[in-house]
Amino acid sequence: MKQNEKKRDWLNIEYRRVQNKKLVVTVYVLLRLSVVGMLVAQIFNGNFENVYTCILALILFTIPSLIERRLHIDLPDTLEIIILLFIYAAEILGEIQEYYVLIPFWDDILHTLNGFLFAAGGFSLVNILNRDKRVMLRLSPFYMAVMAFCFSMTIGVLWEFFEWGVDTLLAKDMQKDTIVQAIHSVTLHPEGRNIPVHIQDIADVILVHSDGSQTPLGVGGYLDIGLIDTMSDLLVNFIGAVVFSFIGFFYVKSQGKGKLASQFIPQLMEKQNPERQEES
C-alpha cells in the first residue's frame, strides 16, 4: 500500500513537472486553436482531405506530452516548441496553405530541421542508455555522435521510401518535380550502349498520347520526376544531422555542461529524493 502511494506520488510530481511549462502550453494552445479554426473552415469548404490533415496535426501535437507522461522523459522546452512548430509548418502551412509550392525552400528548411531533430532523438536514446547503470553500454562521444547521425539519416531514407510509396500507390506528388533544361541518359543511345546521350537547352516537352494527340507541358523545360527533390531532401537532412552530431559530441565531451545542446537533449525524469519518500 505504502509502495503504491510512493509510486503515485512520483507520478504526480512528474505530471506537475510536465505541466509547469507556461511557454510550451501557450504555444500548444495557440497552434491547436489555429488548427481547429482551419479544420472548421475546411469542413465548410467541403475539402475533406484537408480536414484529415488537420485531424492528423491535432493528433501529432499530443506526441510530446505522451512521451513525457508515458516514458517519463523530460523534453526541454526549446525542443518541444520546435517539434510543435515543425508539425504546424509541415501539415498546416506546407500542405493546406501550399507553402511547399509557394515558398521554394520551404521543403528544404523542414527537411534540414527534421535531420537536426532526429539526430537529437537518436543521440538522446544512446545518452540515456549510456547513463543507465543497468545497461552494459558505454560509448565514446565520437560513437554517440555517429549513432545520432546514422539514426537521423535512416529516418530520412525511410521517409523518402514513404513518399515514393504514396506517390506510386495513391497517385500523389509528395516527391515534387523539378524543371531542368538538360538531361543525360544512356536510355536514349540509338545503339543501346552504356554511353550517356546529352540533350541541352530543352525549352519544352510534348507528350504524345496513345490516340496520337499531343500535349505540350509548357513548363519551360524537362520535367524531372522526383529524383532531384529526393536527393535534395537527403542532402539537407544530412546537413541537419551533422550539425547536431557535432553539438552532441561536444556536449558529452564537456560532461553535459553545454547550454546549447541541453536545450535539445531529452533527459529521464528523476524520481523524488529518498527524504520525500520516507516522509510519505
Write up what this structure looks like.
- This protein is mostly helical.
- The chain is built from eleven helices and eight strands.
- The chain has helices at residues 2-19, 22-45, 48-61, 63-71, 77-96, 99-102, 106-131, 141-170, 227-253, 259-262, 274-279; strands at 73-74, 178-180, 183-185, 197-199, 206-208, 214-216, 222-224, 267-268.
- The strands form four sheets. A two-stranded antiparallel sheet has the order 1-8.
- Helix 7 crosses helix 8.
- The radius of gyration is 24 Å and the shape is flat.
- Mean pLDDT is 87; it is low at 9-16 and 272-280.
Topology summary:
Elements: H1 2-19, H2 22-45, H3 48-61, H4 63-71, E1 73-74, H5 77-96, H6 99-102, H7 106-131, H8 141-170, E2 178-180, E3 183-185, E4 197-199, E5 206-208, E6 214-216, E7 222-224, H9 227-253, H10 259-262, E8 267-268, H11 274-279
Antiparallel strand pairs: 1-8, 2-7, 3-4, 5-6
Q: How are helices and strands ordered from N to C?
A: HHHHEHHHHEEEEEEHHEH
SS field, number of helical segments? 11
Roughly what fraction of the amino acids lie in strands?
5-15%
The termini sit apart by 11 Å
- The stretches of 5 or more residues where confidence is low (pLDDT under 50) are 9-16, 272-280
Q: How are strands sequenced across the largest beta sheet?
A: 1-8
Average pLDDT confidence is 87
Percent of residues in helical segments? 55-70%
The rough form would be described as flat
The major β-sheet equals: 2 strands, antiparallel
What's the number of extended β-strand segments? 8
**Radius of gyration using CA atoms only:** 24 Å
Which structural class is indicated by helix and strand composition?
A: mainly alpha
